[in-house]
Amino acid sequence: MTNTRATGDEGRDVSAQGVTVAGMTVLSRISGLVRDVVLAHVLGAGGVADTFFLAFRIPNFFRRLFAEGAFAQAFVPVLGEYRQRGNHAALRAFVAAMAGNLGLALLALTVLGVAGAWGLAAVFMHGLLDDPERFELGVELTRIVFPYAAFISLAAFAGAVLNAANRYAVPAFTPVLLNIALIAAALWAAGVAPGAPFAAGYALAWGVLAAGAAQLLFQLPAVARIGLLTMPRPNWRHAGARQVGRLLAPAVFAASAGQINALVGAVLASHVGPGGPSWLYYADRLMELPIGIVAIALGTVLLPNLSRLYSAGEPAKFNATLDWGMRTGLLLSVPATAALALLAYPLVTTLFLRGATDAFDAKMISAALCAFVVGLVPLVLVKIAQPGYFARQDTATPFKFALVNVAVNIAFGLATFRWLGHIGLALATSVAAVVHASLLIGGLVKAGHYRPTRRLARATATTLLGTAVMSAVLWFAVPDDAWWLDADLWHRIGALALTVVGGGVVYAVTVAIAGIRPHDLLHRL
Fold first, then answer.
1. Ramachandran assignment for 448, one of left (phi > 0), alpha (psi -120 to 50 degrees), beta (any other)
2. What is the CA radius of gyration of the chain?
3. What's the rounded Cα separation, in Å, for the pair 22 and 435?
4. CA distance 405 to 397
5. C-beta of residue 367 within 8 angstroms of C-beta of residue 423
6. What are phi and psi of 506, to 5 degrees?
């Protein structure tokens, strides 16, 4: 590897920020994994589990539209401009206007969502209409959890303010609070009303709502410490607010394509039959582990830094930072893809095969996971490439690509779910991700905003070599499916831990021998 430092201190800053976010995200994902193990034990798959997961997707979908997936992408570049000007009073006025505008919009959305819970359930749980008892439960759970969209959107707004000020730890830790709340709710329901799944559904719904409020309140002291905790003052005519508004409409769709695809899959899964939504949920949660650690961490730090470099007129550093993101994303996501595919059944049986989850559920979840991992690398690259557009306040181009993404997902899902069931829906998400990543990266290269470097080519080759060696070792070392099904829990845990650690060591040693070391990623762009 070359010893040339492409961007000096800024490179170290971006990589250090990425480590901070990744570290907190690891904690969040581990707590999320514990949460899902508890939910699988208490709820299993099918019945109330399907209904709760479908209801929970509704506020999460609107959260992504209003906050993490779109609002932040339009808001952060404009916020970066205000920070560059060095006028703190103007910065506070902008934040106050955006907080007021967002708050009013979310209040209106919440009122409409709660009042229209039956209609939302009819759309997003269409497959449950023939089951009046479960559908009515879905309506009631939707009514309880929908205000979570407002709380978590405001929490995401606070997180965007903190990220723009290079404060990453608090926003990255915040999701842990949701996991704690759901674990507590599930355990409470299991202890107070054992064998009463409807009670568990209601407990989890109230846990979601409480977690939303906690996630918002948790971040406010950190916002106050940077001097940007202001009284919301709605102002639709504020110049900065109008600039965000112009960027927001296409960004809503562009940044939320993945969530739209997941939601389409959930709606179709409600027609697959009992268990379909739950199988997809558990498989998706396992795939979200590497995506959350790698893609979310990289996307979070890339957007504010790329925005700053673009505003400062430094295209070389802009390219180097984006190239660093691509290299790091591939180095971590390619082996994760191979490991998840080879260890799908061992992971599912170890984590979920107990309580209300049986062997058939485990087989269905692992099959969905294998279909999902086809799109893992493309999904990571999407999260890395999108900031290259949003940082330049270009939301129109990603919007067009997102349209193609969603169209491919819907077409492939409709074409396959009747004969492949939930597996076809997972595969549709992956195929759409491949198309989406290709369009985004190709668009950046074609427009001259990104030129892949030789270091990317060498890192890619090294990553593929390390993954091939790791995969060969895992292929011969991992016991067959029958062993994982018959072994007791502690033997499964021991074998899985040994396999994961061993595979990771083999990969790390291989890429280190080939010339890539942590020092190259953490200190050099």
1. left
2. 22
3. 26
4. 13
5. yes
6. -60, -45
Tokens standing for residue 94? 């902008």
pTM metric for this prediction:
0.69
227 vs 273, which has greater pLDDT?
Answer: 227
Of residues 412, 123, 117, the one with CA closest to residue 266: 123
Segment 413-424, tens digit of pLDDT? 888 877 888 888
Residues 6+ apart with CB under 8 A from 518: none
Say if residues 66 and 106 touch (Cβ distance below 8 Å): yes
* 8 A C-beta contact, residue 257 and residue 346: no
pLDDT tens digit sequence for 187-217: 887 766 555 567 778 888 999 999 999 999 9
Cα–Cα distance for residue pair 292/18, rounded to 1 Å: 12
Checking if the pLDDT of 282 tops 90, the result is: no
Proportion of the chain in helix, strand, coil states, percent, rounded to 5: 85, 0, 15
pLDDT > 90 in the chain, percent: 28
Residue pair 178/34 in contact (Cβ under 8 Å)? The answer is no
CA distance 280 to 370: 11
**Residue 246 carries which side chain, given as an amino acid letter?**
R
Q: How many CB atoms sit inside 10 A of residue 169's CB?
A: 14
Mean pLDDT of 94-112: 92
Domain borders along the chain are 8-523
Say if CB 63 and CB 206 are below 8 A apart.
no
Instruction: Pick 107 or 167 by higher pLDDT.
Output: 107
C-alpha to C-alpha distance for 413 and 425, rounded to whole angstroms: 5
Higher pLDDT, 355 or 501: 501
